[in-house]
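Fold this sequence, please.
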Amino acid sequence: MSSALSLAHEPVTGIRHGKLGMWIFLASEVMFFSGFFTAFIILRNTNLPVFAHGASELNWQLAALNTVNLIVSSLTMAMAILSLEHGNKSRFQLYMGITFLCACGFLVIKYIEYTTKFSHGIYPGTSSFFGLYFTMTGFHAMHVIGGMIPIGWMLAKSFTKRGYRDWERVEILGLYWHFVDLVWIFLFPILYLIF
């Protein structure tokens, strides 16, 4: 009787429930960020001088460094998954640690960018460009923090006596982390370079 009511561990689709759930979540996130990108394109095309001036106030060098940070973190996330899949705990810890540090570096650079803008009297209400700039990069930074929480938890768990062995969950987290990286790869040229 209990076997008829139990949930099967193997999904009908052949894809783990967690992975399928992550893909569905990421599809909703694509729609979420698509709204920002659409608003940016429409407002930019109707306010070219305002957007060109706003973009000239941004530090593309710091943003390029952040791009490198996230690309490296995507690589180290992939290496962490591979290491755990092959049972190499020390390499998993190394690569997850680097991923976490790259995310911290990203947030430190964002903090420097934001505080520089604030010190020059530039806020979200300064112009439509900066309203979108702070909103888009702020939401992206929140997604980075959202990824850092499970990265930190999995990394900390790997140092316990039992360790952390579920490479498939790390793979699911990797999907999210690669999405965060991909969003920045679109944000970087649109905000900092195309003017």
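The two ends are 67 Å apart (CA to CA). The chain has a mean pLDDT of 93.
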